[in-house]
Amino acid sequence: MSVLDLARPEIRAMQPYSSARMEASGGQILLNANESAWAPFGEAGVGCNRYPDPQPAALVDALAALYGVRREQLLVGRGSDEAIDLLVRAFCRAGEDAILIQPPTFGMYAVCARIQNAGVIEAQLATDFALDVDAVLAAMTPAVKLVFVCTPNNPTGQLIPAASVERLAKALEGRALLIVDEAYVEFADAPSMAGLIDRYEHVGILRTLSKAWALAGARIGTLLAHAEVIALLRRIMPPYPLPLPCVEAALAALSPPGQAQARGHIDQIKAERARMADALATVPGVREVLPSQANFIAVRFDDAAAVYQRLLAAGIVVRDVRRYPNLGDALRITIGTPEENTRVLDVLEQTR
């Protein structure tokens, strides 16, 4: 069985749009794409009067080297959100198929499914927010085509052991794609599970430059998956997804100096995460500091609403996650600079 047997047959059969940039490359006089021959006002040589490459070779090569995969196993898009949306549209028939998630988790999995009119099936996490593989498998139905797991999980920060992910991969073979969202893996004390895609053609890994690489505004995300899955998604992806300035920003961040800076910031975030967790545990009104392997900490409070308003009044915005299952008393606090983190603690300490 091919992994593409799980995809919508009409997607496999469709004739994709063929852009001018796809049909021809090279040449000095470009008169095939109805572009302007003049650069826009004020541009500093980026070339925005021309359409960008659909998958810029330099960026694809840089990301493939960073993530340890082959270039044909990699799709670059507008953040992880675009890859999630493409996966749902390619594999879930409206009104018939479904995805499976384990809330509380990243909300875009369910949003993309509902836009597609695909079902959303939920499996319970363990009481400590650990992945319950047995619960996931028990919740599976023939309609499920995509199973999303987020590790470290957002908004809890929980890391899923590699053994649990691989057990799930084995059990889902021939039944559904397993999509592992590693948006925060750079902050974890565990390696990426990207090596699974060479062993299981139905496993995909989501990565992003938004968090550890400080490029949230550039919207650069990546799906690592079997080459046939990547090729299928390219058929339904918009022809020019990556703006040239965003590509330039990503290439700068992935240069040797850019990588050195990012890794220095990652080390600092890990140290600050540990400091904040210890300090928050002593703050009056804090019920629990959830263990985190991400660049944030979820904290339970006696009165989370009052704490949120107190921080907001001091000019500090944190994430209210009380709407999530089993987090009705919690706020999520991103790790900032040492000075920002100290300011958070100072405001919270004022209740002493």
Automatic annotation (TrEMBL):
GO biological process entries: L-histidine biosynthetic process
Annotated source species: Dyella thiooxydans
Domain Aminotransferase class I/classII large: 44-348
Protein name, UniProt field: Histidinol-phosphate aminotransferase
Subunit structure: Homodimer.
HAMAP family (UniProt xref): HisC_aminotrans_2 (MF_01023)
GO terms for MF: histidinol-phosphate transaminase activity; pyridoxal phosphate binding
Cofactor dependency: pyridoxal 5'-phosphate
